[in-house]
Amino acid sequence: MDDLVTELDRRLAAADAALTADYRGDRGVRQPVHTVYVPADRYAPNTVADWGAQALKALEEHPEFVKVLDLPDDVYERVRGKLEREPIEDLRIDFEDGYGNRSDDEEDAAAIAAARVAQQSPYFGLRIKSLEAPTRRRGIRTLDLFLENLGGNRDGFVVTLPKVTSVEQVEAMVYALETLEAKHNLRPLDFEIQVETPQAILGADGTALIARMVQAGGSRVTGLHYGTYDYSASLGVAAAYQSMEHPVADHAKDVMQLAAAGTGVFVSDGSTNVLPVGDAIHDAWRLHFRLVRRSLARGIYQGWDMHPAQLPTRFAATYLFYREGFDQAALRLRAYLGHGESGYLDEPATAVALAGFVLRGIECGATDAGEFDVKDLAKLARRA
């Protein structure tokens, strides 16, 4: 028997090594519940505080918010506290679609000015223009200037690469970062891949290129972000039907989740362009609330927010999701650990998911740790 196992070890050594290299597991860090995109020319030292103030003002001007969404009072109070304490978890300074095409002098100045603003949220970074030929030089130039002038704490910093169409672009991004790191004496930089083109989901050879992109980026790739409108438009979906819940969106995100599973790469949903403003604010709030809940139920724990008045619904939907599921998850965790009965026969993989659920709720402020030790939860959730 020992000889047989030794031979199996020899035969499977390469496969074992590949599995470990390609599927590194959880990175051991908190995933933000959202990413806020702010055009570079509107980014200022008070941006995060201003967004929080605008979100709170929207609630003050519309006290019916609780009834519109049928929220429990405890959820509403937690949402208000979050808006006062940490209104934005992840912020991206946008030099792409939200910024547009400007003169080189204007974008140079914006890149330098934005880099000199102190970090305002736990996670932050910039979205450069794509590595497609027409915008490649401008995108790298902006990144170079930003890194040259970026001071202070760089924890949580990430670069977003939009409109990726090939594995070669991801490889080129790795090379660009290595070159800029050497130039500016920086530690390794991370980046996210935006899935906004059909080529990222299905290559000309019929393969799912997004999986190969994740491999090509290695440990530098920290996220896959779905781009609702570019992707839908690329597939010919009429503007009126472009949505985070369109079937083409669900297919793309299913592929993204499969490609990211076990790699430590976070998956983020996109945005809705229906803004909570004017007379239609109630309908916009209901829509955003429902879409956030839908993403969470599908196992996508992050999305984009594009307007301050979307922050209340982001946190309301997220908090309600975790609070509604907490008691059941806690009961099943206790039973799995041998402290009572739950009526479920949960396996280790489900226990990992239960611990991850409880931990996410604690980290975003939806629930309190209570009886659970966060370190024990992280261990059970297999966080590195």
Description:
By secondary structure, this protein is α/β, with parallel strands linked by helices. The model has no long low-confidence stretch (mean pLDDT about 95). The longest helix has 26 residues, at about 310-335. Helix 5 packs parallel to helix 6. It is built from 15 helices and 8 strands. Helices cover about 50% and strands about 10% of the residues. The chain starts with a helix and ends with a helix. Strands 7-6-5-4-3-2-1-8 form an 8-stranded parallel sheet.
Question: Could you give a short description of this structure?
Answer:
With 384 residues, the chain is α/β, with parallel strands linked by helices.
In total, how many beta strands? 8
Assembly classification: single chain
- Given as residue ranges, the uncertain stretches (5+ residues, pLDDT < 50) are none
* Computed structural class: alpha/beta
Q: How far apart lie the N and C ends?
A: 34 Å
**Morphology:** globular
- Helix-residue proportion: 40-55%
Rg: 22 Å
Tell me the strand percentage band: 5-15%
Largest sheet: 8 strands, parallel
Q: Helix count?
A: 15
Please write the string of helix (H) and strand (E) elements: HEHHHEHEHEHEHHEHHEHEHHH
**Strand numbers in spatial order across the main sheet:** 7-6-5-4-3-2-1-8
Q: How much is the average pLDDT?
A: 95
